[in-house]
Amino acid sequence: MRQLLHAQGFRYRVDVQPERALRRRADIVFARDKLAVFIDGCFWHSCPLHATSPKANAEWWREKLDANIARDRDTDRRLEEAGWTVLRFWEHDDPAAVARSIASTMGRA
Length: 109
What we know:
By secondary structure, this protein is α+β, with helices and mostly antiparallel strands. It has helices at 2-7, 58-81, 95-105, and strands at residues 13-16, 26-30, 35-40, 85-90.
């Protein structure tokens, strides 16, 4: 997906904090356009299609994964309050479709 974006002339930073005050990192950041893109893993972010629940230490894992989801929502809210556009995709999403969605959001579709 990053190769597709780069081939279309997009320039971005990878794995950086969109906002210094927010100790969270986005997978792809278009700083000038204030666009933060997150590619969420199915296990760690509880994908409704592919999430699994570990059997060993199940309660700890449930709390951990629930906390990840809550942190994602908090990150979205805080970035949006700071004037950012936040896009989230699943790791299994089609890279070409993701690249098209990003381009469309940036008005370059």
